[in-house]
Amino acid sequence: MRNKTTHTTLVSLALFAAANLAPIAVAAEKPGDIAEGKKVYARVCFACHQPTGLGLPSVFPPLAGAEQVAGDPARLIRIVLHGLQGPIKVKGVTYTNIMPPHGPQLKDAEIADVLTYVRQEWGNKAGPVTAEAVTKIRAAEKARTTMWTWAELEKL
């Protein structure tokens, strides 16, 4: 009899709890907005990387068809946040110019938007970037005070 009573009590408690608990909302990570990303690109990126994403030969690398753009978005987030210096080989050409950090002036959503735009424009077919991913990397790298090198990023 004791087992039946215990079982009945547990079932009653479970039903009571299920009826009185509100569902827990889990927010899905929202991908960057391509239209907003295009605006950020026009404001911040186009002078060096050009409206076509082809860059300036021997000066600023192309983003169109670049393996780095299609690769790990965490690397791109770090580049936008802290900048890039030193050599980087893109589509068989080595570039040595710098990209300044844009983290201080861009919000996480703007970085997600522009990277989503770049990763899906000019024939690029990479996945979107989320503001949540940018927020996590910004927090993880908050102590960083120098620009990245491609060699450092390749090790991550």
Can you describe what's shown?
With 156 residues, the chain is mainly α. It has one domain (29-155): Cytochrome Bc1 Complex, Chain D, domain 2, CATH 1.10.760. The chain has helices at 2-20, 34-49, 67-70, 73-82, 108-120, 131-140, 150-155; strands at 84-85, 88-90, 93-95, 148-149. The strands form two sheets. A two-stranded parallel ribbon has the order 1-4. A two-stranded antiparallel sheet has the order 2-3. The N and C termini lie far apart (61 Å). The model is unreliable at 5-27 (pLDDT under 50).
Q: Top keywords for this entry?
A:
single chain; 156 residues; mainly alpha; Cytochrome Bc1 Complex, Chain D, domain 2; two-stranded antiparallel ribbon; 7 helices; 6% strand
Strand content: 5-15%
CATH uppermost class = Mainly Alpha
Order of neighbouring strands in the sheet with most strands: 1-4
Count of helical regions: 7
User: Fraction of residues in helices?
Assistant: 40-55%
Reported for the largest beta sheet, the result is: 2 strands, parallel
Shape label: globular
Give the gist of this structure.
The chain has 156 residues and is mainly alpha-helical. The chain is 50% helix and 6% strand.
Task: Reconstruct the topology from this structure.
Blueprint: H1 2-20, H2 34-49, H3 67-70, H4 73-82, E1 84-85, E2 88-90, E3 93-95, H5 108-120, H6 131-140, E4 148-149, H7 150-155
Parallel strand pairs: 1-4
Antiparallel strand pairs: 2-3
Helix pairs in contact: 2-5, 4-6, 5-6
